[in-house]
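User: Can you predict the 3D structure for this chain?
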Amino acid sequence: MSGLETADHVSVHLTGCGESDANAVFGALEVAFPEVSEPEVGGKRPPTTPGAATATVWCMVVDARAHLVKETKETVAAGALTGAVTVDLFGAADPVRQVTEELGAAFAVEHLGTVPGEHELEARLRLLPRADT
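Assistant: Here is the predicted structure, written as structure tokens:
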């Protein structure tokens, strides 16, 4: 399961966004799931030449066992996203669904597809700024 500690852990990978959008997404997850790993930037950045494109992957592992129910957690005022953020979730089906629900509570979500495995689920989402923010 991608090196996850238990079946309750969900690996969250963000692409197509800058640091402020990554912080907004991770901030929303940290409120809903207090037991998360420190976010990190995946991979090393190669030397660039002028005009060369680079890609950044922002990663976090969420422990779904630490999920706070909506009645007891503080209200999340999600930071405004500046644009679309692609999210890939990897883990067991129920924890992935919990993370997806929390992201849906904080942002507008488009479901781009899922790939079921024998013991895990991979889901791809696109987060968008809410029209009402």
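Helices lie at 19-32, 93-106. The chain has one domain: 10-42+57-68+78-128.
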